[in-house]
What does this fold into?
Amino acid sequence: MKLSEIGERELIREIQAWLGAAGPGVSVGIGDDSAVLSLTAGTRLLATTDLLIEDVHFRRRYAGYADIGWKAIAVNLSDIAAMGGRPRFALVALASPPEMTAEDVEALYAGMRAAAAPHDVGIVGGDTCASPDGLIVNVTLLGEIQGAPRLRSGARPGDLIAVTGSLGLSAAGLAVLEAGAPPGLPPDLVAEVCRAHLRPTARVAEGIFFGQADGVRAMIDCSDGLVIDLGHLAAASGVGAQVRLDRLPIPPSVGRVAEATGRDPAEFAAVGGEDYELLLAITPGALPALVSGLRSATGTEVTVIGEIRAPEDGLRFLNAQGRPVALGTGFEHFSGP
Amino acid sequence: MKLSEIGERELIREIQAWLGAAGPGVSVGIGDDSAVLSLTAGTRLLATTDLLIEDVHFRRRYAGYADIGWKAIAVNLSDIAAMGGRPRFALVALASPPEMTAEDVEALYAGMRAAAAPHDVGIVGGDTCASPDGLIVNVTLLGEIQGAPRLRSGARPGDLIAVTGSLGLSAAGLAVLEAGAPPGLPPDLVAEVCRAHLRPTARVAEGIFFGQADGVRAMIDCSDGLVIDLGHLAAASGVGAQVRLDRLPIPPSVGRVAEATGRDPAEFAAVGGEDYELLLAITPGALPALVSGLRSATGTEVTVIGEIRAPEDGLRFLNAQGRPVALGTGFEHFSGP
It folds into this structure.
């Protein structure tokens, strides 16, 4: 059904019905001028916001509405995770293009809910309007943290650089989604990399673990790509960094897609971005406890990929022979002529 | 300077410099994965978000960047005010079209800061990206409230309907901005109505006053127009309402613009929207104390314009002779074929 046949007030009622009862901490949810919320006693508030715009952050050609909704929540969950905090509440502002139906909006919200619900994050408010052109989704995520947040600025020379999970799947998926699957790749491998791009998993439990663990000096999520995000961490900390590309946790499927598309798996992993893994600077002595603690708490692996250096060393990416490699710079907004 | 010459990281640094030091309650502001914030002890969190899209909510043809920034903050301040709360922190997501320069972004932030600073609201985080088409600004405003919020749902038959300040200036300004000033209107009158539309004032101090006063049963801000917003309040409260159009606080300049453009001043006041006044349902006995208390606390007048009725009476707008008048329905997103 067209949104113009429903009207804004009825659409908001439908959204309320799709989302169901408000969760803990929600005194007033969707439907008044503001949400009224309670944080856990003794915590501070975390707040982050991300704008997703059609043909900048996603394409409706291959991303379904539920995928877009999922991703809008996941990228914000990842920012809360990168502080070591617990996500609590989401606000969603949606501008829908003329052809979008009520069923499409429902699918978008279903995707958001699917990403949010496992973390007990409720969608508590928002805004809806018409968009003259593409689809626009803005999500603000509110979280809470007990104790000190994990900042980008705490890394010191001698710290180890570590990353959760794996790198490169999302960029491999994007390559396949943009250009089509190259011949010869098994369907389940294609599905794996596409899913990694369309439905990224934020490392929420891992972030909470690192937020409470000893020896984590700095943390950031890998959204713009390892090169850019490590650059952020190094700049904020006033340090240099050296990464061994042969140590990057690159799954075999990334290598298969790289081979089939004539690309470099290390580029997918170091430049591609959107893996939403956590990138950390940790004190060397804390490594064994962090690796085993994270594994037993979450099942997730953490891999050491390099070390923090003095600022004059800059950012260096070395190959297996220890020689510096020039890499692209990852995704840069405002690039162009 | 073009944003593509600066890059995202440098732009964020410039924004930090324009905004200056973070205010009270801000442990971590712009520049990390999330803001880290503290609310006043004993308060609950308020959260609201509003998306402003070019050619839906504003036109760059007559709205300067500072106007757009101002309005993006003001409309959110108004939502916090309508709960009776105190605004604290803003997050800003900005998608800038290709032709927008760093100076334009600075003007936009200057407008936001001008709207936020008088209320000690700091801009503590956000997101920046490129927009393929128009300018997009999303603001999320976080506030706090001690005690019970003022909801839309508390009105009861017999309550008086009251409104702060005046109605119609913004719609009169929009008419002039869209079609050009009709001949014969004095320049200062044209400037007054245009300013009301481009730089609306949220009733922040008034909202805080009503949030602590006795006898305020329901409150909403007049953003979509009296007809729609009173409809929201009536629907949420399960009541009807009757308004006397001859009692609406319509300034003389609205009448002058209406006359010069062949429009009805009551339409500007009741349907136009974007005045960002507060609309209240109050118990009759509380009226004298609310009027004098608001005047001495803020200098703002409050006018009784009607009364809450039984639900079966519906929404009725009467002229000076007490006869029902048919009005347009105010701004409806998703209208169209």
Remarks:
- The two ends of chain B are 41 Å apart (CA to CA).
- Chain B has a mean pLDDT of 94.
- The longest helix of chain B spans residues 65-81.
- Residues 28 and 159 of chain B are 45 Å apart (CA to CA).
